[in-house]
Amino acid sequence: MLNFQNNQLTGMIPADLGNLNKLKRLSLSGNELTGEIPADLGGLSNLEKLWLYNNQLTGEIPAALGNLNNLKVLHLQNNQLTGTIPAALVKILDLKY
Fold it and tell me: Does the pLDDT at position 1 exceed 70?
């Protein structure tokens, strides 16, 4: 688990986090992160829980997150995201919103 929740982090989410393919849980919520969610996070094949809520993230939710077949929990609320939920993400049947 990588937990940087409520640490007053600023800037963008590093795309390099997508290289941590054994990671199961990632929490970056409650910070001041900006920019788009990197599509590279779709490479986290073992990820089960992703918390990015309460930031200032913008843009659309990357369709690449639909590659996260083990994802069970996804929290993106309280950001400035636009667009629709990608169809690939909706197909993850066990996902809890």
Answer: yes
Token readout for 6 is 């409520």
Q: Which amino acid is at 38?
A: P
At residue 64, the pLDDT reads 95
Torsion sign across C-alpha atoms 38, 27, 65, 87: negative
Residue 76's nearest CA partner among 85, 68, 63 is 85
Contact assessment for residue 3 and residue 28, using Cβ atoms and an 8 Å cutoff: no
Q: What is the DSSP string of 53-85?
A: -SSEEEEEPPGGGGG-TT--EEE--SSEEES--
Residue-level pLDDT at 90:
80
Name the nearest CA neighbour of 37 among 17, 59, 55. Answer: 59
